[in-house]
Write a structure and sequence with these properties.
Layout (H helix, E strand, L loop, with lengths): L1 H6 L20 H5 L2 H20 L3 H14 L4 H13 L3 H14 L4 H13 L3 H14 L4 H14 L2
Helix pairs in contact: 3-4, 4-5, 5-6, 6-7, 7-8, 8-9
Amino acid sequence: MNCLNYLLDDEGLLQLRAREIKLRLLDKKKNQSDPYLDEMLSRKHEELHDLYYQHRRYKEAHEQILKAVRLSHRKPELTLKLADLLVILKDPLRAIKELREVLKIQPKYIPARLKLGFLLQQQGQLRDARDQWENVLKVDPKNREAQVLLDKLSPRMSL
């Protein structure tokens, strides 16, 4: 409303067509060196992703989570959300690639290893899936999910 009041002339007539308005939303050079701003923007993109995801607007959710991942410098939790979304969008190979990238940065991140193992199993890469779940058990020997997945996989591996 303040913008409109500013654009009104003294007589109260709106002269929008004659005015040229330029807004600079972000100074990109300054933004590149401000981790606080990156984190804040990343959270906002994540919130938009969650909203789109809830409403099953997966393409829009994908755009937002990609922006969030880029701004957060590959935060593992966001990359896991990206991988889930890629599976929904029928791109499991790219989801596998994203999870492998996260594991290069944080090799002990258990949720990514579990998800990667599951996706590899779906792709028929049973040995690689087994390796992922065994790595989970090295980090957390009491991880029930990894143990159950390995137990289910063992009979298939012997065939």
